Amino acid sequence: MTRVLVTGASGFLAMHVVKQLVDSREYIVRGTVRSLTNEKKVKPLKELSSELELVEADLTKKESWIDAVKDCTYVIHVASPFPAATPRDEMEVIGPAVDGTKNVLEACAKTKGGVKRVVLTSSCAAVYGGRAGEDHLFNEEDWASEEESIPYEKSKLMAERAAWELVKNLPGNRYVTVSVCLWWDDMAKILDEEFRPLGYNVPTRVAPTFLLKITSWFDPTVKMIIPVLNKEVRLDNKKIKEDFGFQFRDEKTTILDMGYSLIDSGFIKATPKYQEMKTQQSTASN
Ligand SMILES: NC(=O)c1ccc[n+]([C@@H]2O[C@H](COP(=O)([O-])OP(=O)(O)OC[C@H]3O[C@@H](n4cnc5c(N)ncnc54)[C@H](OP(=O)(O)O)[C@@H]3O)[C@@H](O)[C@H]2O)c1
């Protein structure tokens, strides 16, 4: 069986990738984590499969990628800093993103036998970063504005650019993988409709812009959203649908799945009504 490496396997997206690969039973799956002794990160991965190979690698440590990539036919590079707040120094995010991408790709090029294909998880931030609000349907031809981007967007833009620069003589493709862009209050309304009858209070009122701007002075998580506040972004996902027949899950299902997952995994407390519904469901399925 061919071996696939998934970088940053403990992350939100990468763990889904690992799960799909493991469930397919078609590959030997190797995942990287920063530390094998970090039980919080490693345990959920081990629970996915006892056969999953886990190795340590850090984006900033070039040498760690040589062993990680060894004997792999495919590499899915997902690891990258994904900050929830504006960092004090943008290089905290940009440095590992760019150096990590180069380190992974260079290790792929050096590995004996050669890696056949690399999938790089960039971001639509590398497509529309610093350009939200433009009256434009963004697609794979578009690139973020380096000058106007926030640190995260810049990190994705620069990492992807670095990747293309390294593989400039090789064939490759860029795909937008966004199904639809929604406003936060649209998402809140979908959650509210489903979860209010189960005893949850999902706030659906839109916070006034001036209040968010004031809050952003002392809250770096709010500061991060100010550049895109009230600005619409439209993305065209035609290419991936045409090339792969890719079908996106509808947004309502995705948002509700997230809600249920947050409750079932204990991030949000289960209300008595929610527990009652679960009991009824399990009785019905027995
Ligand atoms: N989630 C989205 O909606 C979304 C959208 C567009 C693009 N993306 C891209 O998808 C990728 C994963 O996003 P995510 O949502 O899954 O984020 P995440 O849960 O924060 O996962 C990020 C992963 O990168 C790893 N990582 C960060 N810095 C590292 C370093 N210095 N060395 C090694 N590993 C490092 C993290 O390891 P630790 O667990 O040890 O911190 C984690 O496994 C990122 O490239 C992100 O830009 C995500």
Automatic annotation (TrEMBL):
NAD-dependent epimerase/dehydratase domain span: 4-178
Q: Per its record, what are the GO molecular function terms?
A: oxidoreductase activity, acting on the CH-OH group of donors, NAD or NADP as acceptor
Q: Sorted alphabetically, which keywords does the UniProt record give?
A: Oxidoreductase
Keyword Nucleotide-binding attached: no
By its UniProt entry, which Gene3D superfamilies does this protein fall under? NAD(P)-binding Rossmann-like Domain
Describe the family membership recorded for this protein in Swiss-Prot or TrEMBL: Belongs to the NAD(P)-dependent epimerase/dehydratase family. Dihydroflavonol-4-reductase subfamily.
Q: What is the protein name given in its UniProt record?
A: NAD-dependent epimerase/dehydratase domain-containing protein
